[in-house]
Amino acid sequence: MLRIDTWEGTAAATATQPTPSPGCYFRHVGESPASLARLVKEYSVDHRCIGHVTAWTPERRGRDGGRVAGAAYAVLGWTSAVLLRSSLSSRLDSLNPVAAMLLLDQPEIRQLECSSRDFVVLRGGSGLGNDWPAELTGAISAFDIDLLVGPGAAGLEGAVALDFDAFHRRFAGTEIAA
């Protein structure tokens, strides 16, 4: 059973004991991107979420006029622009010059150069191909850059990094399962 709460960070949180209680759904309305970033970070160890964390898109109207439930994305963890720039640098070394230039021409990648933002790392249930859902417009693909540092990078197929401002705007809530 889910409980709908607002989330407030506390100074006593540690990496091994996350502040939010399990089994909660946190609406993004009324929260700030910074509070959502704190939620994901406090429920992470080494940039990876511990337990099952899910982000939900808003409900929308179907073709028949009825309500269609929002899509669910697994929240894998978070990363920073500094880490993404470092991963990009090592990725460019392994590419041929044409592929490297094509990668650097992507607007999302160009914005990393002067960015200091943090990003939530998400993965859709069906993986992501060339057709990106509207909620992920402007995201950075794991196919381009290793999004999470450390072991287990193979599990990043279909993962994307989305800055917390866009995450706040395009997703309705974040659920932490019991």
Topology:
Elements: E1 3-5, E2 24-27, H1 33-42, E3 44-45, E4 48-49, E5 53-56, E6 60-61, E7 67-68, E8 72-80, H2 81-93, H3 97-104, H4 107-112, E9 118-124, E10 140-141, E11 159-163, H5 164-170, E12 173-176
Parallel strand pairs: 1-2
Antiparallel strand pairs: 2-12, 3-4, 5-8, 5-12, 6-7, 8-9, 9-11, 10-11
Helix pairs in contact: 1-5
What do these coordinates show?
There is one protein chain. This protein is of the alpha+beta class. The protein has one domain (25-55, 71-148, 155-176). The protein has five helices and twelve strands. It has helices spanning 33-42, 81-93, 97-104, 107-112, 164-170, and strands at 3-5, 24-27, 44-45, 48-49, 53-56, 60-61, 67-68, 72-80, 118-124, 140-141, 159-163, 173-176. The strands form three sheets. Strands 1-2-12-5-8-9-11-10 form an eight-stranded mixed beta sheet. The chain has a two-stranded antiparallel ribbon with strand order 3-4. Strands 6-7 form a two-stranded antiparallel ribbon. The protein is globular, with a radius of gyration of 17 Å. The chain starts with a strand and ends with a strand. The model is unreliable at 1-20 (pLDDT under 50).
